[in-house]
Design goal:
Length: about 900
Amino acid sequence: MDKLTYLSNADSGYIDSLYQAYKEDPNSVDASWQKFFEGFDFGQAYGGETIAEQTPEHTIKEIKVLNMIHGYRDRGHLFTETNPVRERRKYFPGKELETFGLSEADMETVFNAGVEIGLGPAKLKDIRQFIEDTYCRSIGAEFRYIRHPEKIKFLQDRMEADRNTPNFPIESKKRILKKLNEAVIFESFLGTKFLGQKRFSLEGGESLIPALDSVIQKGSSLGIEEFVIGMAHRGRLNVLSNIMGKPYKTIFSEFEGKMYEADPETQFGGDVKYHLGFSSDITSQEGKNIHLSLAPNPSHLETVDGVAEGMVRSKIDMKYGGDSSKIAPILIHGDAAVAAQGIVYETIQMSKLDGYKTGGTIHIVINNQVGFTTNYKDGRSSTYCTDIAKVTLSPVFHVNGDDVEALVYAINLAVEYRQKYKTDVFIDLLGYRRFGHNEADEPKFTQPSLYKLIEKHPNTLAIYVDKLIKQGSVNAEYAKTLEKDFRAILQDRLDAAKAVEEISDERPMFAGAWKGLRPARQSDIDKPVITKVTETLFLELAKEMNTLPKDKKFFRKITKVYEDRLKMIETDKYDWAMGELMAYATLLNEDYRVRISGQDVQRGTFSHRHAVVTLEDSDETYTPLSKLKGGDKFCIYNSLLSEYAVLAFEYGYASVNPNALTIWEAQFGDFANGAQIVFDQYISSGETKWKRSNGLVMLLPHGMEGQGPEHSSCRIERYLELSANDNIIVANCTTPANYFHLLRRQLHRDFRKPLVVATPKSLLRHPKAVSSLTDFTQKAFQEIIDDENVAAKSVKRVVLCSGKIYYDLLEKQDADKRKDVAVVRIEQLFPIAYDQLEALRKKYAKAEFVWVQEENENMGAWPFYCRKLSGSSLNLRVIARPESGSPATGYMKRHLAQQTEIINNAFLL
């Protein structure tokens, strides 16, 4: 039973034993009991008498007062004044004196329990006032569930020393006022000048701006040199202008409908202004340089969480030598989204994992108490929208958004906590949404009572100005001048924006880590890239990588895997795993970073990779690639069982470091379904929307092998559906060497494109899916591989195929000795190698062309190729499984019958 339970029961035996221990050695009991026993002379216990039995009723009440103090620390947040526009829900038991066994008659009594909160002996009314001020005013703190006494003590001591009541100097108050003035007037200005246009106003939560300004200033003083911010659309324009420093003129030009200058060949399509990202350099009040990045984000709310975390981790690895104290992520959530979106949970669960930790995230929830039109009571089951924080034992500060100084105090404490303990911390900024979800929406349709209160409620700036005037910190004229001058600045920038015909993007994409790279041109796509390596280097790395140390004991099966790989050097037959690992080894040798993550990637879902091996009689691991030249830049992490957040993280990682081969592997290809938002909103469209290139590689195991509807298809059709204007690369390779060159090509071009690879399962060990040394050292990536087994003049049919089915077709071709059917492999499904296809058409001039795939006719590459090659000289028809709503049959017999029919029909002239 814990101490608080004993306290509430006033267990005399327990108290007696504690007191005996205290008398023998005061340090043998914790600090709170030391304080309690100081100054009391209970005397010795004789003849079975206990301390409690010797002492008057007052002593029992001392314990009850201590219990009250602990009660406020535990549950005080339930009784705060944190809601600016309506009454809080009632919680029972409450904080009445009777709850703790006390009464009004005790208020003038002096209790030594005041020592516990630093008051010394004090009247109950003063003790109660102290803890009321600390835990039940504008800040409600949840932290007692943290299973770390030092962290609890740090927060408890800080809050009780200050009573959670900030005492800022006059210059700090003026800075808070300035930032709040900018936030409020900016929204008001937009609302009057661009009536009815969507801006997703921050009104009701404007104190976010002075809070962000303060966390950046405070963080800088604590050693943070860079912040990466992820947020959805509400308040984004305000953050862009008043925190990031995006020119008001540019924002007004976007409202005016002015377009960015764009090179038509890059296919830049743009995005709405409240989705855009930005980066800037600012100077702190102490004269320190701070870099700020705001990640672009679609309307899919919390998707940016993983992206921002990945950006931070990439910079920790690449720029800060692993020191997370130099950079911090800030995630800004909505109350409805943080409670309901699953990616929030996934991202939070990543926060302490070796492959994904970023040194702690500062979470700020703009709590409007409504989600679109849904009341908060219908938006979650938890007490607070921030209850997800308890998963990682992160402290939460619930703050009244109308008390801007309390918010600044809380967020300063939050950044201190983050820097000290390297864990997440949450700020729940309770405010309201003055208008509807957007400026054309009528909130009274669904929230009439709430919006009657909001209509009458003064804005945060008016409240703060009134407070400062009453304090004598500023006078009314000062506040009016501040507002007038800022409005004049905004009007001047608006006038300038109206005079501009076309705006230019002030943010150079290809700077910093991206320096030396450029946007891709259409003419670049088919250009060959030199990816071969010398025989000497290849053989040296192959031998070194596959020679396990003699002084370590490995499982016999692992030893055999590596022995078999060494034999591949002798037989000149390299399998898929060797082709893949050699791509990594050669890139590391060239000083590139290689990062791989996903479920079970160290071993590989199909036990093919074994990039990390475990010793037989311990948990010690050994990573052969890390022992090579450049091996310190090789990182491979088994991820948590998440696709959405992990893929978003790796996208963010790749966006920051283009000189890293960043790979996410799905356990099975269809697992990527769970991350479809990242594919749709970032991977396929990020360059078109935001001019942001990315070279992320996604490995999606694919192949119809009779294993049932799930884990057969990676849904190639989905990625091809997303393909346009050379935005991504979709490949389905059939040889280890071609895969080797494909991976190396990612970093050997001077531009970056996302790469989706349908990777094999059964082909990992197929005896014919091998490559020779010359394939690695004398060739390059082949978008299309022609049939070398036939003579063009004898060919009556050309079978175009992609992936695993090639080997089934090859087996039939060999068995039947068919020289009249050519089997041609399309290794790169997109971008389509039109010139090479046209050359095939000319080469096999008298032959018919057919498309053969093992996927259903309504799936796989056929729907895309049917559309793209419609009307071409190829005049394609398809041989495939029948259309289906399911990717594959669940019956092996039917699968084999279907596969046999496809293969037979491919050769049936």
